[in-house]
Amino acid sequence: MEFQSCVKIINEWDIVAARQLGRNVAKELGFGTVDQARITTAISELARNIYLYAGQGNVYIDKVYDAGKSGLKIVATDEGPGIQDIRKVMEDGYTTSGGLGAGLPGVKRLMDDFDIDSTPGKGTEILATKWIR
Amino acid sequence: MRIPILKLYDCLLVSIQGELDDATALQFQEDLLQKIHETSANGVVIDITSIDFIDSFIAKVLGDVLSMSTLMGAKVVITGIQPAVAITLIELGISLNDVMTALDLEKGLEKLQQELGD
Ligand SMILES: Nc1ncnc2c1ncn2[C@@H]1O[C@H](COP(=O)(O)OP(=O)(O)OP(=O)(O)O)[C@@H](O)[C@H]1O
Ligand SMILES: [Mg+2]
Fold it and tell me: Mean pLDDT score of chain A, rounded to an integer?
């Protein structure tokens, strides 16, 4: 890994900081405007989930390189309540906060690789990567 | 930050500019409803040409603004949705159903005039 930066998510302004950083890194890497919007949206969803459900956590933005491809990887981690039923939160429309329930299933569709690791009572780690075509 | 809301005849005009944070979005919701009430406006054009992404939170606020304005008797047209925004909204799984849209502010106003019967 050649590059990593991190935004600590404590309040709603940090959500803005995280997505601005993500957009800048996406631009640097040469992503087009549609992919930039996908990445910005994904970061905003993950950062807001941390703020809403875990109180605080971190969003890491990495430039990643694999087999001649370059990409942008988002890692969102928190030590919040964790997720009991991962299959359920990946359903469109499932929400515990009166939201649209679009966040997590949306991030999965917006990005190329997506993975959730969560332990109830311990916290949640979500990885999402977008590759340059 | 507060989003300015302009009045033009019986319509309100809003151009959302810059980074739309949560507090600004919620303040805008409140301000717009208040302004509809004060001015008895029949129509609202919300131009989002300079918005370069919409996440589920902003989509929910916008959707709520639409239903609340409708409840108050004002028709809303959203204009200037960028291609990247349209694509990410659909991928997020959000369809702003029954929303009147137009390419730009001018077409939005025309549409509103038609809807309101001149
Ligand atoms: N980091 C997290 N820690 C604990 N629970 C989480 C976390 N992220 C998401 N969840 C749970 O997963 C549910 C679904 O999340 P998702 O982002 O898909 O929808 P939402 O946040 O409820 O609504 P939206 O994102 O559309 O505004 C949430 O309602 C919440 O219960
Ligand atoms: Mg969410």
Answer: 96
pLDDT at B7 over 90: yes
User: Comparing C-alpha atoms, which of A133, A128, A132 is closest to residue A62?
Assistant: A128
Q: Using CB atoms and an 8 Å cut-off, which of residues 13-72 of chain B contact chain A?
A: 19, 21-23, 52-57, 59-60
Mean pLDDT of A127-132: 98
Which residues, listed in sequence order, are joined to residue A71 by a DSSP beta bridge? A64, A131
pLDDT band at B118 (very low <50, low <70, confident <90, very high): low
Domain count, chain A: 1
Q: Residue with the nearest Cα to atom 19 of ligand 1? A: A101
CATH topology of domain B5-115: Transcription Regulator spoIIAA (3.30.750)
In B, minimum Cα distance to A18 occurs at B21
CATH code of residue A84: 3.30.565.10
Chain B residues close to A34, C-beta within 8 Å = 83-84, 87-88
Which residue range forms the structural domain that includes residue A83? 5-131
Residue B106 CA, ligand 2 centroid: distance in Å: 35
Nearest Cα to Cα of residue A53 among A22, A80, A77: A80
Cβ–Cβ contact A16 with B under 8 A:
yes
pLDDT of A66 > 80? The answer is yes
The pTM score is: 0.95
Q: 10 Å Cβ neighbour count for B116?
A: 13
**Distance from residue A104's CA to the centre of ligand 1 (Å):** 7
Domain ranges of chain B: 5-115
- Residue B112's identity, in one-letter code, is L
